[in-house]
Fold this protein.
Amino acid sequence: MAAKVVAVVQVVSLMLLVVVGSHAAEGAGVSCGDALSALIPCTSYLVGGGGATPSDGCCRGAQTLDRLAATADARRSLCACFKQTAPSFGVNPQRM
């Protein structure tokens, strides 16, 4: 039960970050909000609550971001987005 509550809180926190950070990477091919949305399936892995490897859905989201952020500038913008937002929802830095 407690694990479900934690997971729900993490997803809600992530969605709030999508709204707050949605403009940080705009103009780079993919917005920060879109990037965070694509990584929602990665939440349990990134905070250390999942298994040792990311889920298939997480990998698909990361692959989508890889295709959308095709330039060095786009990738730098997404990196800045993730650095800014990751600490807000407890991402384990070793899982990034």
In short: The two ends are 27 Å apart (CA to CA).
